[in-house]
Amino acid sequence: MIQILESREKKQEIEIQKATLKTEMKMFFDIHTHSTSILNQVFAIQNRYPTSNDFSSPFSIGLHPWFLKKETSENEILLLEQKLQHPKCFAIGECGLDKAIDTNFDFQK
């Protein structure tokens, strides 16, 4: 497991280095976006849900409480665990608890 993580970290470091080399300007990091940046100096980490189809660019992955459903949660957790091993997965998120929505709070935990 340690070798897998080290290999993934090296791939992520290379990805960041490539992005940095694209421009001589300062590099900016957008760590939570839902779209691709058109600016070369922005390294964007797109927020993805486990059932998303596009994992071709750097992404974060999580289970947002707004979209949790009991009937699909087990499968989504399995997908999330798989996607955490993806070389373009840079972060976990968006995750959290939300008391302001209809999804049962105990289920969110």
What does this structure look like?
- With 109 residues, the chain is an alpha/beta fold.
- Helices cover 35% and strands 18% of the residues.
Short summary of the structure?
The protein is α/β, with parallel strands linked by helices and 109 residues long. The protein has three helices and four strands, in the order H-E-E-E-H-E-H.
Number of strands: 4
Helix content: 25-40%
- Topology order in helix (H) and strand (E) letters: HEEEHEH
Rounded radius of gyration (Å): 16 Å
Number of helices: 3
What are the main properties of this structure?
109 residues, alpha/beta, 4-stranded parallel sheet, 4 strands
List the helices and strands and how they pair.
Layout: H1 2-21, E1 28-33, E2 42-48, E3 59-61, H2 70-83, E4 89-92, H3 105-108
